[in-house]
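Hi Y.,

Following your request, here is the sequence exactly as I used it, all 57 residues.
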Amino acid sequence: MSIAKKIAHRAEAMKGGAKKTAGRATGSRRLQTEGRGDQVKGNLKQAGAKIRDAFKH
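Below is the corresponding structure, written out as tokens. Let me know if you'd prefer a different format.
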């Protein structure tokens, strides 16, 4: 997995965390849910990349 993709997956997870926090601060359940979804998606992509790298070596 390229370093650029790893950075992109991490950025997606961080963006989701920021959205979730912003949703909490503003009381927006939609923004909170959207952020949680983005965060989970980024974390899953990171986990998949780690698994691929483990079997690659």
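Residues 29-56 form the longest helix (28 residues).

Thanks again,
Q.
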